[in-house]
Amino acid sequence: MLKERIAGLLGQRQPGHSLPRDFYVDDDIFRADMQAVFETDWIFACSTVEIPRPGDYLTLKVGDNPIVVLRNRDGEIAAFHNSCRHRGSMICQKERGRANRLVCPYHQWVYELDGSLINARQMPDDFDKTAHSLAPVHVEVICGMVYICLADEPPSLARFRAGVTPYIAPHMPDRTKLAFTSTIVEEANWKLVIENNRECYHCAGNHPELLVTLVEFALPDDPLVKAQFQGLMERSATRWDGLGLPHKPAEGGNEFRCIRLPFNENCLSFTLDGQPACNKLLADFTEPDLGSVRMFRVPNNWNHFLSDHILQFRVLPLSANRTEVRTTWLVHEDAVEGVDYDLQRLTEVWLATNDEDRVLAENNHRGILSRAYRPGPYAPSEFMLSNFSEWYAGKMAYFTGGPQARLAAE
Ligand code: FES
Ligand SMILES: [Fe+2]
């Protein structure tokens, strides 16, 4: 029944328009989103440098699924369903922590960092511990970014890996450390959070801090690109070509975007004066004017890689009208707080921007609840919303198994 209803709503969808209301507000469709998207696709979880030592772990929830991502004794990143094989209790409770072994707090079953059950007290002698390992979750690490997939057979990340690595690897994310993390909850559907991120039509009216440094219509394929920006882009491109840093848009289709773009004239970083937030530049950079590599990947991740720090954003839906947005700031591993960087200066632009975006997404959600809501047309500068809604519609069509399913799967 639900699949038929979704197929009907997909049939009503007008390309180039926002989605029919139920896709944003309906609880059943939210559950379908979790199955069709979040339990089948690769989900950005964290950065490897957030769990630098064996035994370090980080937890998150993908829909109803609690997951633990950890670094095992071999130094590799692994992920497991955070659900005990005895009677299902969540094992790791904290958002981040460190454990020599994973011990379930309920009856103290003990798991190795590779997920194997090594102690189950009071169980009979013939109890087969080997049949009760933690359920593994697929993991791929790309330039320090940890992606997890709950599907039995995950889709390929090969194109994404090959596409983004040349842009990101020079920033050496493995040689960074976590400077700060912020988690906020937005009272809005996850798709509104993503849509809000995919356009800067709203920037001029809402983001005074961000627009100190961000070029508003900076995308080369944006119809409103300005001659002034073209000059800036050409000068930057010549410099980046000389440094061997790629900048032209990667071929990511609707799956991902990756591009290096300049900041406003004389601006080098996301700060209120445009000067670097961290004096110790990433990698072995000596040139601070590297603009930013902006990378987005459906369904839940966008990042900025600058000369002096890295920003990573993770979106996790909580319910039809609640979405968690977690932001992490990474700086050079040798940078010292209070000496090389000031935390307020490093974080203030995006803390403010995130909060402004939260208000926009929440207002958007509330307005869509109106009985007068009708899907409205995207502006030309909102072309990335078209990409996103086409991708989403494809996922949902595949989920419903309808006539568009085969096409969407190709
Ligand atoms: S539920 Fe984990 S030990 Fe019982
Ligand atoms: Fe915004």
TrEMBL record:
Pfam families: Rieske, Ring_hydroxyl_A. Its cofactor is Fe cation. Keywords: 2Fe-2S, Iron, Iron-sulfur, Metal-binding, NAD, Oxidoreductase. Gene3D superfamilies: Naphthalene 1,2-dioxygenase Alpha Subunit, Chain A, domain 1, Rieske [2Fe-2S] iron-sulphur domain. GO terms for molecular function: 2 iron, 2 sulfur cluster binding; iron ion binding; oxidoreductase activity. It comes from the Bacteria. Residues 43-148 form the Rieske domain. The keyword Iron applies. This is Rieske 2Fe-2S family protein. It comes from Paracoccus alcaliphilus. The lineage of its organism: Bacteria, Pseudomonadati, Pseudomonadota, Alphaproteobacteria, Rhodobacterales.
